[in-house]
């Protein structure tokens, strides 16, 4: 059994050993390496940083370009910039969020509306098609039990003459029939009496359908990384 005093003695011995032997001399250069001769290198690099580092390393291994004598002094020809492979020199990439459509679904990517049985009564819903002359409805009453899967909901309108009708809960989950919450008047006017459109401008490309290529910064060309030769 190891007592506390024994543990303390072992720890101090370990520290003494680290100080006297070359352990600290071995650990410190590893930490120092990240701020080495090549300047600061972050500990955690992204994909792009890693690729650039690799390219620079490869360029260092390549033979030095020949020296050409000119009347103005000797020069070395650098390699011309090469075409960006990711965007094939276009400088643009198709938006990955909307897949080039420029629009996304306003209700998100889920296949059906989520109906929470605990607080479904009182929740607000918008009918995709005009129903009984209205679109905005509120769940007024619940019938049946979720266990038996026979829940019926009474939908009541919010304004004008009171209208109500019963719908099965599965109908409320159907995105092509109902929308959770009350959509704005703007959306209703845009629907123009027909079906409500489940579209929104893509938040990533703002409807442009394309995004600037990050690899080449939108220029389509990548400068070759070459070491400076004298
Ligand atoms: Zn987009
Ligand atoms: Zn590119």
Write the layout of secondary structure elements.
Blueprint: H1 4-20, H2 23-32, E1 35-36, E2 39-40, H3 47-61, E3 67-70, E4 73-76, E5 82-83, E6 92-94, E7 103-104, E8 124-131, E9 134-143, E10 152-157, E11 164-168, H4 169-173, E12 178-180, H5 185-191, E13 200-201, E14 210-212, E15 221-222
Antiparallel strand pairs: 1-2, 3-4, 5-15, 6-14, 7-13, 8-9, 8-12, 9-10, 10-11
The structure holds zinc ion (ZN) (2 copies).
Pfam families: DUF2389
InterPro entries: CHP02450_Tryp, HSP_DnaJ_Cys-rich_dom_sf
Signal peptide: 1-25
Structural class: alpha+beta
Q: Tell me the helix content.
A: 10-25%
**SS field, number of helical segments:** 5
The description of the largest β-sheet is:
5 strands, antiparallel
Hey, roughly how much beta strand do the residues contain?
25-35%
Bound molecules: zinc ion
- Assembly category: single chain
Number of strands: 15
Average residue pLDDT: 80
Task: Give me the strand/helix succession.
Answer: HHEEHEEEEEEEEEHEHEEE
The termini sit apart by: 67 Å
Please compute the radius of gyration using only Cα atoms: 34 Å
Uncertain regions spanning at least 5 consecutive residues: 24-37
Strand order of the largest sheet: 11-10-9-8-12
Could you list some keywords that capture this structure?
230 residues; alpha+beta; five-stranded antiparallel sheet; two-stranded antiparallel sheet; 23% helix; elongated; binds zinc ion
Explain how this protein is built.
This protein has 230 residues and is α+β, with helices and mostly antiparallel strands. It has a domain at 104-201. Helices cover 23% and strands 25% of the residues. It has five helices and 15 strands. It has helices at 4-20, 23-32, 47-61, 169-173, 185-191; strands at 35-36, 39-40, 67-70, 73-76, 82-83, 92-94, 103-104, 124-131, 134-143, 152-157, 164-168, 178-180, 200-201, 210-212, 221-222. The strands form six sheets. It has a five-stranded antiparallel beta sheet. Strands 1-2 form a two-stranded antiparallel sheet. It is elongated and about 95 Å long. The protein binds zinc ion (2 copies). One zinc ion is lined by residues 95, 97-98, 102, 202, 204-205.
